Structures
1.
Amino acid sequence: MDLNNRRTIRKYTEQAISDELLQQLMEQACRASNTGNMQTYSVVVTRDNAQKEALSPAHFNQPMIRQAPVVLTFCADYNRFTKWCVCRQAEPGYENFQSFIGAAIDVVAFAQTFAVAAEAAGLGICYLGTTTYNADKIIETLRLPRLVVPLVTLTVGYPAEMPEQPDRLPLDAIMHQEYYHEATPEDIDSYYAYKESLPEMKQFIAENNKQTLAQVFTDVRYTKNNNEHFSKVLLDVLTKQGFLS
Ligand SMILES: Cc1cc2nc3c(=O)[nH]c(=O)nc-3n(C[C@H](O)[C@H](O)[C@H](O)COP(=O)(O)O)c2cc1C
């Protein structure tokens, strides 16, 4: 598989994903690096239509949830590891933010390794960022216990589309040699010139009645109000699940 050709897939054929293939891809994903080899993550597999239906509102009814043959909810999980400690006369100390962040980093490495393995096997995937927006609802639907927090969802299936590849910023915008180079206004012009020149981005600005593409992000897609609201929801979830007690 050539990573230069990858793209997110949001439409899937009806072809099922076999248990054997899913198992094989999960085994590969488990080879991802992880903190102290504690594997402080879990994944909940959803194939059942009623369960997809139940999850759907938490993902703002994005159609991929109902359409994909498999929905995977990847969770930070210190529940299992804590139980192991308790069963083995060890005092667990993981009810804190540092442990949550460590588990969160491991979950993302696990999920992304799964994504690459799945794409290499001919499947298509889409991440759903709505997982952290509505983590409270997902916790209820999937019956996630204390010290388990859902962080990313992947919808997975055989591709029924081959969309245009989205643009990327030039590497200069991303890579810093030896020291961080803070972008000047001229650098910003050059980094974002290609993205801003794309006809679909110009259409995006017009459809949303905005003057600049950045305003579509700040005023429509990722607003301060929403970010602050969902931050509160997530902090509440971290408290209830035991990471901020
Ligand atoms: C954490 C995360 C959350 C995302 N959430 C969504 C989502 O909720 N809905 C969606 O359609 N795509 C979602 N995506 C996919 C991105 O929109 C996509 O990766 C990006 O536009 C670049 O496109 P590409 O993956 O085809 O290169 C998400 C991706 C990531 C990594």
2.
Amino acid sequence: MNTLRAWQRTKQDAGFGSITWSQSYGGAELGAEYERGFLAVEEEFQTPEGHEAVTISLDLVGPTILSCGTDEQKDRYLRPLRRADEHWCQLFSEPGAGSDLASVVTKAERDGDGWRVTGQKVWTSGAQFADYGYILTLTDPQAPRHRGLTAFLIDMHSPGVEVRPLRQMSGGSSFNEVFLDGVWVADADRLGAVGGGWQVAITTLGFERVVGSRLTGGAPNFCDLLMLTARHLGRASDLIVRQGLAAVWADQKIRWLITRRADAARQAGGVPGAEGSIGKLAMTEGLRRIADVASLILGPRLVADSGEWGTFSWSEFVCGVPGSRVAGGTDEVQRNIIAERVLGLPREPR
Ligand SMILES: Cc1cc2nc3c(=O)[nH]c(=O)nc-3n(C[C@H](O)[C@H](O)[C@H](O)COP(=O)(O)OP(=O)(O)OC[C@H]3O[C@@H](n4cnc5c(N)ncnc54)[C@H](O)[C@@H]3O)c2cc1C
């Protein structure tokens, strides 16, 4: 985590950390093709492994503050966020609100020139490292659904915030339960209008799907890694393995093209829409295929740590793939969005 932080700072200070961002907030104001060019060069080197605390800050919270925040919020939060000096988490999901995010019940009640927030969030990635959280709350239980919600920027070190890590089947604890007991938030840290939280959340979900379609990191890397592993284990001439490798390569090409289309839409000033769902779904299908091919190549070596190069290290990846089908909107929800907004099929009964 510290090396990743240092890497992000180095990039930011050298002018490569926020290539497409406005100069007012530490960016270079260049087109997405410049960012892609830099990423392609970066992928040729071994750099610190990604971490959800950094991804959420840079790819979800930062763009949301940029889209929906006040000038004061942008001035205060964006530069340290881009340098990874301050980490953020996304406090959306609750025990009773995941896909149906508008059902959140964590409430925020007026208290002087601020608000008191009380409730429970869950699956909060990176909360144990976060300095700040971006939270969706219920401020008007009487209002029609989607109109009673308000978003806030909350200091995770405030009295009343308790973070409890959850243990995953991979052995790690990347996400948490977060309990909030009367946590005070200044009205100046409200993100968007009172009752406008749904629009703010939708903006973030659009960014999340686009990022979700890129979560695998460099497109050619998994294919190269699988090929190296197949060669190392003498499986590279197996017909079924070769077919799997070709399918992984094709998936990655398709995902790259989808990403380029989303980038072009973003560059033209649009907020990511349904193409994010297509990218997210393509990403999870691609990850599933990579996990299948890795399992085919490795066989029992996947679960037995023999110390042999390039074998057991795949086990954490394979265990993490089911989670990617849920995080950032499940596969079923992405299919609903594509059906309704891209294909124009009738809306599902609500
Ligand atoms: C790795 C990981 C990281 C995460 N990080 C965060 C985070 O940082 N912050 C955060 O707020 N949340 C986070 N989440 C939570 C994630 O957003 C939710 O898990 C997700 O939205 C699904 O909600 P749920 O778990 O409540 O499942 P539910 O919404 O209860 O869904 C259960 C099942 O029902 C299906 N389903 C639900 N509605 C429909 C429908 N309308 N049509 C068809 N099928 C449907 C779903 O596809 C799923 O299979 C993370 C989750 C994972 C796995």
